[in-house]
Write a structure and sequence with these properties.
The chain is an alpha+beta fold and 244 residues long. It folds into two domains: 3-63, no CATH class; 68-228, Alpha-Beta Plaits. It has helices at 3-12, 22-64, 74-91, 105-112, 114-131, 155-171, 199-215, 224-228; strands at 95-102, 137-142, 145-151, 181-187, 221-223. Helix 4 (105-112) crosses helix 5 (114-131) and helix 5 (114-131) crosses helix 6. The protein starts with a helix and ends in a 16-residue tail after the last helix.
Length: 244
Amino acid sequence: MSWFDDRWDERKGSGTDGEAEPALLAEIHRLRSRLEEAYATIDSLRTKGNGLEDDLDRLQRVASTDGLTDLWNRRFLIDSLDVSFSFAVRHRLPLSFVLMDVDAFKSFNDAHGHAAGDEVLRQVASIVRRCARDHDVVARYGGEEFAILLPGTGRAGAMAMAERVRRTLEARSWEVRPVTASFGAATIRHKEIGPQTSAASLVENADLALYHSKRQGRNRVTHADELSRASTPLVREPRPALDR
């Protein structure tokens, strides 16, 4: 029995014929009104809270998304790469990273204008997104460059995915002129990971492989492992891939 029930038992017999005193009824009514007000306040706060959560979700999405292509942006990509790299190293799981660059894009912009170039980038982004899996992270890396983070994917899977995108771009009927892209892929090599190894090494290796694809005539896929086996390794000053 609650305190309220005790109070009711003490007072209900004090009125005429066992009826509650008017003062008690007034107190009960006042308490009930305050309780209803409290519930209304809670409901209002819950509604406002849901609205705030929705606003925060939208803001987070805007802060993490590239405005032109609606892909993830570079910052979100690097955050995801850091987490995925640490997890893959800890559990010795495969992880691959692909960089792609639209071929001769500067000359396209110079010849046809930035509006036409932006439309090409949007269409390229749509193709890459369709070729990726739900849990892959597809991002605009900067300018005409895109990146795909492939958790749980080894070298063969990364090459297959990049080749699928390359073929789709090549086979598409483009409105102005053919559009192709060059690709560089890199995969974690667990036997070579040391205390100083970071996710940046994966990006740098993919960048070197992309550079090799460009030098070999564009519109091709190169994996970083191919460079490590070459008699004369390709050396390129790595760019600050993890700058935010």
